[in-house]
Amino acid sequence: MAISSELPSKDGQPLDALIVGAGFAGMYMLHKLRGLGFNPKVVEAGSGVGGTWYWNRYPGARVDIQSLEYSFGFDEELEKEWRWSERYAPQPELLKYAEHVAERFDLNRDIRFNTRVSAAHWDEAAQVWKVETDVGAAMRCRHLILATGCLSIPTDVTFPGLDTFAGDVYRTSRWPHEGVDFSGKRVGIIGTGSSAIQSIPIIASQAAHLTVFQRTPNYSMPAHNGPIPQEDFEAWAKDPRGYRAASKDTVGGFQNEASEAMATATAPEEIRAELERRWAWGGFRILGAFADSAVDPQANRIVQEFIAEKIREQVADPAVADLLTPKDHPFGTKRPCVDTGYYATFNRPNVELVNLRAEPLVRFNAQGIETSEKTYAFDAVVLATGFDAMTGAIDRIDLRGVGGRRIKDHWVEGPRTYLGLMVSGFPNMFTITGPGSPSVLTNMINSIEQHVEWIADCLVALKQRQQTSIEASPEAEAAWCRHSTEAVTPTMLPQANSWYMGANVPGKPRMFMPYAGGLHTYTEICRQVTAKGYEGFIIRQGDRVLSESRAFTSQPAPGEIPENLLPIIMERLMAAGLMPAAT
Ligand code: N01
């Protein structure tokens, strides 16, 4: 693998763009900009491409969106030559795909691996970003593109006495490349989010004994994984372009048979038949069963009760089934998990569930974990404790914009952005799937493609007009934050203590970070912003303002909200003071 070590351009000029991160976002951004004649480079902390799929190598890691949809659509040849082996591809195959894309488009020559960006300061006079890395390399670039991932920095969760534990400690998000063999070992795992739910069945099948420490149960749906059925593949292969276009034209960027039916207006036997059909199909399909389940607590409870019943069917011990049943948040307000044999794993004689709400974890000692009730002895402990989501990778960089303002200060009340693409006071700095964009509520690949293409178009437009900088206006940023609040308020999403809300990191401001208006709506808004000559942006040539559009007026396309939901949505917006009350 060719690895470039010289990043600054050879003629001493600043790079056109420095891209931070070589996950799917950074890889496509690099390819796209190179194809347009720009001179971009990438800096990546890991030793290879793949981002999420490079780091998260824990047993059982796999995608939760169907592989046919979770792959790049920007190149027809790439699309034709790659054949996924399973409905939900496992991590090694996803990593191979990333490596294949890198090789096919000769990306590695412009990526500097094993290097982390530590600081980036905007130089107003020169209109460039000055960037520093942890290995001492410094560079200048006109545009800084943060493709740093939404779930790339693990939380700093630690436990008293962890360093005294004599056994091995693993984090799911920093799994050893050579793998771990738990055969014959006594293993403990802390956490029951997606990472744990995927790894627990595999670890349980190897270990002599597995103890699962659960604080909060999550909703999990069966993947029903296996080879892609031939008829599904054929349906997709007939018209991949059309298939992708249809996926992108949805709320979540994937096909979900989203129904406009209201659970509260459907007969119980029809509800059951529909939920059973979607459960049998597997994965996220159940999310689309009823239009009102995301906004109406009564409708949501119907789905919750169905899933609770499914958990009871799978878990032999009713007390364990009850503990595994979520009770503190509505269904869908945290990203649901997609599993293979998770609940049934608790029927194994070598698996034990510990409820940390009833017996809190007190400390680690040399042997293992002490709770308020007893000591559990382990050879190894796995921390599946989550991420400092959406902002973690960005605010760990010493980022300073106009006047030396730090991003941390700008985001002291939560991440404020315009379109989740730019931040006021931080010219020429873009985020791919940043806070304020649909990102983690969607099929990430489709969101990444939309962002990369928007940013590339923007850079081309600037270059053609010899414009040197673009910056979100504070007014447009404020208006976007308001619109994002309007989009999420009618839903139940803010009701969960989720990482979407920053609730899993002590001291992090509580704010719903992704844009909840849907990928299709969002894409249309971005299109309108561009068509209006970059509405909401200030564009300069040197220190001369060439165009100054401060307002954000673009509107979601009419008719995207199912009509029967409108009364609930209006009522919620009025109650939150986001709409004048009807007279
Ligand atoms: O992290 P999480 P994750 N003591 O934050 C517990 C994506 N993903 O890595 O809920 C005890 O969901 C915490 O408990 P609680 C996906 O978007 C996708 O699993 O805070 N427990 C929780 O149970 C997902 O949503 C896939 O009470 C502690 C767990 O640790 C996101 O990544 C696969 C604790 C953390 O769960 C994050 O998932 C994997 C403490 N001090 C991940 N601190 C796919 O399928 C935390 N916990 C593609």
Write the layout of secondary structure elements.
Elements: E1 15-20, H1 24-35, E2 40-43, H2 52-55, H3 76-81, H4 91-104, E3 111-112, E4 117-123, E5 128-133, E6 138-146, E7 168-171, E8 186-190, H5 194-206, E9 209-214, E10 220-222, H6 230-238, H7 240-248, H8 268-281, H9 297-314, H10 318-323, E11 337-339, H11 342-345, E12 351-355, E13 361-364, E14 368-371, E15 375-377, E16 380-383, H12 392-395, E17 398-400, H13 407-410, E18 429-431, H14 444-464, E19 469-472, H15 474-488, H16 519-531, E20 537-541, E21 544-548, H17 566-575
Parallel strand pairs: 1-2, 1-6, 2-3, 4-17, 6-18, 7-16, 8-9, 8-16, 9-12, 10-11
Antiparallel strand pairs: 4-5, 5-6, 13-14, 14-15, 19-20, 20-21
This protein binds 3-acetylpyridine adenine dinucleotide.
